[in-house]
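Recap slide: Ribosomal protein S18 acetylase RimI-like enzyme, sequence and predicted structure.
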Amino acid sequence: MSQNNIKITPYHPKYAEQTVNMWRASKEQAIGQNEIHSFESQIDFLNNILPKEFDIDLAIIDKKVVGMIAYNESEVSQLYIHIEYQRMGIGKILLEKAKEQSRGRLTLYTFEVNEKAQRFYEKHGFKIIGRGHENEKNLPDIQYEWIFE
């Protein structure tokens, strides 16, 4: 698939249901656990809480949400790619946008069980700076940092 088909656009609530469905499926596949939050609470989080601190961009192909990233100038909060569209460069495109908007340094967390995400972030210049952060899933996680060189 050509990356020319991918449209990166700021998040709009008209994409809320598609975005949350994609996010839930991607996360469940990545960590092997069902989502603990209700669909409705994630819609609320996406529409009303996340945008207060983060820019949210979507990757769209043929009107279908295939990826999302939430970031600010120092942190990536969320990055999810549709399970049928992984390993096609979409995550890289979204991550590059966050890097361009950063102050030259980004941090993020990923679950220790999510080895695909670890390989992805390390491939894109992130280094481990911490482990074991407690989170609502009670899973060990890894903190990463990227510094512009």
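The chain has one domain: 3-147.
Residues 122 and 128 are 8 Å apart (CA to CA).
(End of recap.)
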